[in-house]
Design a protein that fits this description.
It is a single chain. With about 220 residues, the protein is α+β, with helices and mostly antiparallel strands. The chain has 7 helices and 8 strands. It has helices at about 1-20, 40-45, 85, 110-120, 140-145, 175-185, 195-200; strands spanning about 30, 55-65, 65-75, 75-80, 100-105, 160, 195, 205-210. Strands 4-3-2-1-5-8 form a 6-stranded antiparallel sheet. The radius of gyration is 18 Å and the shape is globular. The N and C termini lie far apart (about 40 Å).
């Protein structure tokens, strides 16, 4: 009897996840916390996301080669990831996907088609591990910023701001960033213009429509 209940429960979970995947639309912006250790902790510490949640990664949903998935700057380059793989990359204590989905408000949805085309054209661009603007490589938030850069009204959909790598309320850099940039043998780009997932998630130009999993704040 117990085994039967477990099987029924697993079938239910699979059906729910499949239904959730079908709810996505091209142009949706998806947020998650990758739990990448001290670097993700440092990102989360300086900018809170929607309703105080922590986000260290973001991508855009597109229809690519007749498959709905996520284009994201992750790993070594900009790449296409299936919805299922994206959903299950970061999970909560009950092994449910921890993903927040944002959709452009109606006023801005005319930007979606061009943004998706630009995201597809960005596939294969190297990942920007230095988090610098205009260096022929892209990090996750930079990808989102650029694909929505040329909106119909001629203004960027999302605004950049000076980035900080310092601990809040202090003039000291996070040790994780000090070590990270020391390994890259480059200066910490304190004050350079940029964007992070938390800032995008709080934009008034998008509406958060789905929240998967449990988020601890």
């Amino acid at each position: 009897m117990q085994r039967k209940i477990i099987i029924v429960f697993l079938i239910y979970i699979c059906c729910v996840f499949k239904l959730q995947a079908q709810q996505f639309k091209a142009g949706d912006i998806v947020f998650q916390d990758l739990h990448c250790g001290p670097l993700c902790d440092a990102i989360n510490a300086v900018t809170k996301g929607y309703q105080g949640k922590d986000f260290s990664h973001v991508g855009i949903v597109v229809n690519f080669e007749n498959q709905l998935g996520v284009i994201e700057a992750i790993g070594s380059k900009v790449q296409f990831t299936s919805i299922d793989a994206f959903l299950n990359r970061s999970v909560d204590a009950q092994h449910r996907p921890r993903v927040i989905v944002g959709r452009l408000r109606k006023k801005y949805q005319q930007s979606i088609e061009n943004a998706c085309s630009l995201a597809i054209a960005s596939l294969g661009i190297p990942y920007d591990d230095r988090f610098l603007p205009n260096n022929d490589s892209l990090y996750c938030s930079e990808l989102i910023y650029l694909v929505f850069l040329h909106s119909p009204n001629g203004k960027p959909l999302f605004k950049c701001q000076p980035m900080t790598y310092k601990q809040p309320g202090s003039n000291s850099y996070f040790p994780a960033w000090v070590n990270y940039y020391a390994q890259l043998k480059t200066a910490i780009p304190e004050g350079k213009m940029g964007l992070n997932p938390g800032l995008i998630s709080r934009s008034r130009k998008i509406k958060i429509i789905y929240q998967y999993g449990t988020w601890l704040q």
